[in-house]
Amino acid sequence: MRGYSFFQRASRAFNDYPHLPKILVLFTVSGGGLAAVCHTAFADAGQDDIKKKKVVVLGTGWAGTSFLKGLKDPSYSVQVVSPRNYFSFTPLLPSVTCGTVEARSIVEPIRNIVKKKNFDADFKEAECYKIDTVNKKVHCKTTQPSHLGGGIEEFTVDYDYLVIAMGARANTFNTPGVVENAHFLKEVEDAQRIRRTVIDCFERASLPSISEEERKRILHFVVVGGGPAGVEFAAELHDFVKEDLAKLYPALKQYVKITLLEAGDNILNMFDKRITAFAEEKFARDGIQLKTGSMVVKVTGRDISTKERSTGQTVIIPYGMCVWATGIGSRPVVMDFMKQIGQTNRRVLATDEWLRVEGCNEIYALGDCATINQRSVMEDIAIIFSKADKNNSGTLRVDDFKEVINDICERYPQVDLYLKKKQLKNFNALLKNSEEDAEINIEKFKTLLAQVDSQMKNLPATAQVAAQQGSYLADCFNRMKICEANPEGPMRFRGTGRHRFHPFR
Q1: 64 Cβ contact list (under 8 Å, min separation 6)
Q2: pTM of the full predicted structure?
Q3: Within 13 A of 198's CA, how many CA atoms are on the CB side?
Q4: What pLDDT is recorded for position 409?
Q5: Which helix (H) or strand (E) segment is 484 a member of?
Q6: Given CB 3.0 to 4.6 Å as the disulfide criterion, which of 137, 148, 309, 402 pairs with 132?
Q7: pLDDT class for 389, splitting at 50, 70, 90?
Q8: What does the similarity note say (predicted)?
Q9: Cβ contacts of residue 95 below 8 Å, gap of 6+?
Q10: What is the pLDDT of residues 44-83, one digit of tens each?
């Protein structure tokens, strides 16, 4: 009787306080009271699971891992899908090619990150091959070797929110022979393959039957692409050859040659000119041959054909190993998704300043697979003016802009860049620059801001940008409910109220 009374009281407590978490306790007793408590516990647990929003993260690179690490809200259920079950510190990949850093030192298992989360989180080693926005499903297939048996397994994952952080692939520009004969430097496996190939080149060149001309060809290392990856690899390879391999193969050091091919006029053209000048001078001192204005048109197993912009002639360059580091391109699944949502005329996925894919409210894209499509001021000039012109007078004074100045500068970051370029203290200074205390009409407003959009710039596809985007989006997800009730972002110029979050910067 005493045990039966306990279960009666427990059942009453479950019904009186439905918001409390339920605990399932198993006892070996006779009677029907236990069954009632068990059913209540299981039913409530199921309801808690239904309430959780399903977040699917595609990719375990800088963006996806940063988002996963930053996400803390237990109201989400997270599913991570990636063909790679680890995160790699990609800026150190050139060091892995030369053995300066071991591959195991730059990787972190994703499952170690997942198991530390205080909410439902799981990882599946698979590749996403299709995104179904209508049914909110992601179609995936396994990537494990076929010799494990069973063939390729396919499955689908449902989502409420989808985070696309799949990165990008090496861009070959459809150059014949690149995929078959060149090395890429995107993954840890690529770096390890390059390291083996460098050693193989030296071992083959050391054979007594190899002619001197063939030895020169084998020990000619060509890097295609003058961006950060290509420049850093060329520098690492030079140090590896001069400091390490020259001691192991002293008779071969006179045959070693490193050439960097760049289609543009300078290497590192996305950085400050002083950095470009320093790198070019350093290469000249180290004996690394730099050929600018050389566009690769074909790659075979033994030589590279380039078209020289200065002369228009085609030059044949024999080589032993070629590393292709010319830039990035979209993955096939991302390109298919772009066609599905009508972004066929773009190179990568376009998002707004809150990292939402344009036209898809529940889908976010970050990292190398996406770019922020910053709105231009001139596109919204009439709306901005009307927001400030509360009296609908058609003219405004400087004071009338007080309420929207901060929102304008936050919504359109090119305004701040333009003010700095013109050495103006603030937006008021730009308006007053026209005529002191004069009234401004829409045409004059357009004239004042006509050059602002020239300062619009796309963010570079770097690890720093991807990591910051992941942290930003995780913070937005953590404060989703708070910011829906109390929006903190800039004014909605094309609507009413304010945006939920501050835009990504």
Answers
A1: 57, 58, 80, 82, 163, 165, 367, 470
A2: 0.83
A3: 29
A4: 87
A5: helix 480-485
A6: 137
A7: confident
A8: Belongs to the NADH dehydrogenase family.
A9: 101, 236
A10: 444 454 579 999 999 999 999 999 999 999 999 999 999 9
Q: Identify residue 346 by its one-letter amino acid code.
A: R
Q: Which residues contact 38 (CB under 8 A, 6 or more apart)?
A: 24
Element (H, E) at 88: strand 86-88
* Sequence-distant contacts of 68-71: CB under 8 A, at least 24 apart: 68/110, 68/113, 68/114, 68/117, 68/121, 68/470, 68/474, 69/113, 69/470, 69/474, 70/470, 70/471, 70/473, 70/474, 70/475, 70/478, 71/117, 71/119, 71/474, 71/477, 71/478
How many residues belong to the chain? 505
Degrees, nearest 5: CA angle 345-341-58: 105
| DSSP code per residue over 378-404 | TTSHHHHHHHH-TT--SEE-GGGGTTT
What pairs with residue 79 in β-bridges? 56, 122
Calpha distance 442→49 (Å, rounded)? 54
CA dist 491 and 495 (Å) reads 8
In whole angstroms, give the CA distance from residue 237 to residue 98.
7
Summarised one tens digit per residue, pLDDT across range 460-505 is 888 999 999 999 999 999 999 999 999 999 999 888 899 999 999 9
Mean pLDDT of the region 85-95: 94
Distance spanning both ends of the chain, measured CA to CA: 66
Residue whose C-alpha is closest to residue 386's, from 411, 403, 406: 403
Cβ-based neighbour number of residue 243 at 10 Å: 11
345 has pLDDT over 90: no
User: What are 164's strand-pairing partners?
Assistant: 58, 365
Tokens 């000039």 belong to residue = 381
Distance CA(322)–CA(222), nearest Å, equals: 5
